[in-house]
Amino acid sequence: MILAGIAKQSWEAERYAEAGAFVPALGMPVVELLDPRPGERILDLGCGDGVLSEKIAAAGATVVAVDAAPDLIAAAKARGVDARLMDGQKLPFIAEFDAAFSNAALHWMRDADAVIAGVARALKPGGRFVAEMGGHGNIASVIVALTAVLARRGVAAGPLNPFYFPTAEAYRVKLENTGFAVDDIAILPRPTVLTSDIEPWLDAFCEAFLGAVPEPDRAVARAETVELLRPVLLAEDGRWILDYVRLRFRAHLPAAPK
Asked: For 195-241, what is each residue's pLDDT tens digit?
């Protein structure tokens, strides 16, 4: 049984920028759904290197960005973002924000109930919560391939899986149980073209699996994973296109009584 917590993953800003440059680029529709307004105070939960925090601030909002990775926080601060090292499952804020935003981060925080409760506490009455995360079926082929490669070595992949990829129905229940009204929530298949080869992506995002293989055999295990994925994810033009599935939602708390 996997204990709830932040997934064990090393986040290095340079590696993240190389292998995951598409993450903030494809997150702009979520910023548009947030619709940040001048004068608003907005929490960016799981801010990464702060690229989208900058975009939100450019709309005139005041942004407080939090992340659990020290190197990414340093990168966000280098952009001039008010970035703070923090576990997203233990948010300390009370009725401070007009909105909370998150892109491609909530699926790394396995105690979803604690995350949603913390966001609810952090928002003012009527505050909104807008986010996108991995949804049910996200990178399914990658997880199957890694599971097979680890099984060959007598390692069970299930307890190593760092991800929380819920259905829209399950996440709606969690939001509503915490007092949110859900305006919109949907699963969105989004085949995603990698901006790098697949090996750097595996190193950057699947460390929890491959890290279970002893170092002398790790490169071989990664190569076996790539070969299993090649017939499924490598397009005829040489691009790797991953089977991303996103869960996107917009919800809000009740307004204060008049």
From this structure: 889 999 999 899 999 999 999 999 999 999 999 999 999 999 999 99
Q: How far apart are CA 191 and CA 234, in angstroms?
A: 12
Dihedrals phi, psi of 221, to nearest 5 degrees: -65, -40
Q: What's the whole-model pTM score? A: 0.90
Give the pLDDT of residue 26.
75
Name residues of the chain where pLDDT drops below 50: 1-7, 11, 13, 16, 19-20
